[in-house]
């Protein structure tokens, strides 16, 4: 029975690897009206799956076939059954109680609800000066190249209508997945609205994020997608002329 306050079903995707200690905190914030939670396990060596199933008996588990956050999210998206897909982290940095705001933004007309730590009402307990500077530079480059008005490019708390998965056509394995989604959503002309979000510090464990290495991957993605967008536009023009 659908208990939620919205006229759409909601799937929450949680990529996780060795997050057994964090999952009790994460799952405690999830609204009880969510239709399904999908844990994508990156071949954890701790009790991540067992803890998750104990916390949420109706949990669906997808065992990741490759490596990387991007691949984990893509496999979770493919398994989702909901009308709306929400992506959150398993380390306690994203607050499940904010899901209502993301879903409401979609219900009210957006195609893609993009979390932002810099939008009024947002914030972060975890952003280091170098990560903040890098994010602002990458966000600025993206806004110039794609004529967007993003305030926070590199943030993984987002939600979107599942029907847009085809147009996003996601195909990367790493942390650059958020950038790829934001760029392709803009290129596709989707209605994108930012949602204020407050990022918290990881509760237990150590992050796999490497600011310099992953920053370069994000920059390469931004530039590659610019070239791809030009090629797609040219191809579309050729098809139109041939008709």
TrEMBL record:
Pfam families: Glycos_transf_2. SUPFAM superfamilies: Nucleotide-diphospho-sugar transferases. It comes from Nonomuraea maheshkhaliensis. It comes from the Bacteria. Gene3D superfamilies: Spore Coat Polysaccharide Biosynthesis Protein SpsA, Chain A. Residues 11-160 form the Glycosyltransferase 2-like domain. Belongs to the glycosyltransferase 2 family. Transmembrane segments: none annotated. This is Glycosyltransferase 2-like domain-containing protein. PANTHER family: RFBJ PROTEIN, UNDECAPRENYL-PHOSPHATE 4-DEOXY-4-FORMAMIDO-L-ARABINOSE TRANSFERASE-RELATED.
